[in-house]
Design brief:
The protein has about 250 residues and is an alpha/beta fold. The chain contains twelve helices and ten strands.
Length: about 250
């Protein structure tokens, strides 16, 4: 298995595709997607464009859909949710489809949706991602960080490092054999330095500061936790993610 990390969707190769692509947006899209599916959402459908989200979701009855829109960290006017995972309680999302568009995370998912396997990862479901990779052993794996408007982000890179570090440990392989690019080594090093202070790191991150200015303190605390949900969002069709356990049941 060869693992590569890309700091933004724009940095992914244009002429090739990985056997497995993992989109990461710790603050907060993939954390929200994982939490929604854990709380019983039927599926999560992602959009980069708000108007397209509204158009597609219009065919669903209001009691079966939730429209989530976020730009610049804030909820979009007229939408049911913004992009807080804490909104995704069983009482609000169970049995419903979450239609979501965010500033960065949904762009990352759409960037890699042509891969044979597409997963959504955050710190909160790190082990579920690692378990899937160990079981299926894809030849090439990309971890694609969402970043912030085309720029590097600490929180997504440390999550990539958390996945890579655990994967290397459980495979028992050398870093040389696992790493497909230099970014993997950098991500692991960042994680090793901050693994016991992830909440602090998220507070130092530029987007963490942006969310704190919007009074999203509890979101940062929640998103900085590791391995608290055994849920793996996996793409069923382009742009539509389901809990991998539910997908097995459906099939």
């Amino acid at each position: 298995m060869k693992l590569s990390v890309f700091h933004t969707p724009e940095l992914t190769p244009e002429t090739t595709v990985a056997n497995c692509a993992i989109a990461v947006d710790v603050l907060r899209a993939t954390s929200t997607i994982v939490t929604a599916l854990s709380a019983g959402a039927e599926a999560v459908q992602v959009f980069s464009d708000l108007d397209q989200l509204l158009k597609v979701s219009e065919s669903w009855s209001p009691d079966k859909r939730i429209r989530a829109g976020e730009r610049g960290g804030a909820k979009v006017k007229g939408f049911d949710f913004g992009n807080s995972p804490l909104d995704c309680t069983p009482e609000r999302v169970k049995g419903r489809r979450l239609f979501i568009s965010t500033t960065n995370g949904t762009r990352a998912l759409q960037c890699v949706q042509a891969a044979p396997m597409v997963l959504a990862a955050a710190l909160i479901n790190r082990q579920a991602v690692v378990d899937y990779l160990l079981k299926h052993q894809p030849e090439t794996v990309w971890i694609v960080a969402s970043g912030w408007e085309g720029n590097f982000s600490l929180e997504d890179t440390v999550c990539a490092g958390a996945i890579a570090h655990r994967l290397q440990t459980e495979l028992g392989c050398s870093l040389e054999n696992l790493a497909g690019n230099d970014e993997v080594i950098g991500a692991i090093t960042l994680y090793q330095q901050w693994q016991n202070r992830l909440h602090d790191l998220l507070r130092y991150a530029s987007h963490g500061k942006r969310l704190l200015s919007l009074d999203c303190h509890e979101d940062l605390k929640y998103c900085s936790q590791t391995d608290i949900l055994d849920v793996l969002p996996i793409q069923r069709e382009p742009g539509v993610l389901m809990n991998s356990q539910s997908l097995v049941t459906v099939r």
